[in-house]
Amino acid sequence: DTEVTQTPKHLVMGMTNKKSLKCEQHMGHRAMYWYKQKAKKPPELMFVYSYEKLSINESVPSRFSPECPNSSLLNLHLHALQPEDSALYLCASSQTLDRGVGYTFGSGTRLTVV
Amino acid sequence: AQKVTQAQTEISVVEKEDVTLDCVYETRDTTYYLFWYKQPPSGELVFLIRRNSFDEQNEISGRYSWNFQKSTSSFNFTITASQVVDSAVYFCALSRGGTGGFKTIFGAGTRLFVKA
Question: Do the Cβ atoms of A99 and B106 come within 8 Å?
């Protein structure tokens, strides 16, 4: 199994809703990442987990709350989002948190906030 | 400053043409890694290649080749005999150290259109 699975693929939510994005990998990778990508822009790092511990938070607003319940699963909990948060949210994993490793990306969740 | 510049926003070619995507980077690190990723319309980023700063050998993989030149801080990507399936956004990326761990920063991307 050499892939990262993200669910749902599409999500439309209101500004008062609470929803969660899910990311799963079964490659034994110990580093997992959340990226946000706006249209026609490069991915921007949000969070990095290493061995289920939060390693990097790129000053992301608290309405985004990451969670890593185990080594295979990464969640992103969403609450009280704004329309400008509409974007493609990409999850990635790598063997370790090492600058030399390539990432395996999921196909993303396309989020629309209305 | 750590930075990745992909000056070509969009490139359009006809099938079977060769095309080179440019990437210029800036870093103060002596050890660093450079990557190319492909993002097709389906959305996922696909890892293509990694190169470390001590290895300036060019690499060829099928129709893809990469030219790494530290002297000009460039890591260019050439597709030979392009095909419609090569149409995608291509990102060059740099991995660097920082507080809490290593981060990968992406260039702005080059959108490649290959017409039949």
Answer: no
Query: How close, in Å, is residue B45 to chain A by CA atoms?
Result: 6
Whether B98 shows a pLDDT value over 60: the answer reads no
Looking at beta carbons, which residues of chain B come within 8 Å of A55? 100-101
Q: Do B43 and A88 touch (CB under 8 A)?
A: yes
Question: B60 to each of A73, B66, B74, B77, how far by Cα in Å?
Answer: 35, 7, 16, 10
Whether B52 and A48 lie within 8 Å, measured CB to CB: no
Q: What is the predicted pLDDT for the residue at A37?
A: 96
d(CA B111, CA A5) in angstroms, rounded, equals: 25
CA distances to A29, A61, A101 from A66, in Å: 17, 11, 22
Min Cα separation A87/chain B (Å): 12
* Residue recorded with tokens 């530290």: B70
Residues near B71 by Cβ (< 8 Å), separated by ≥ 6? Answer: none
- pLDDT tens by residue, A26-77: 999 999 999 999 999 999 999 999 999 998 888 899 999 999 999 999 999 9
Give the pLDDT band (50/70/90) at residue B101. Answer: low
- Tell me the two tokens of residue A8: 């749902």
Are B50 and A100 within 8 A, CB to CB?
yes
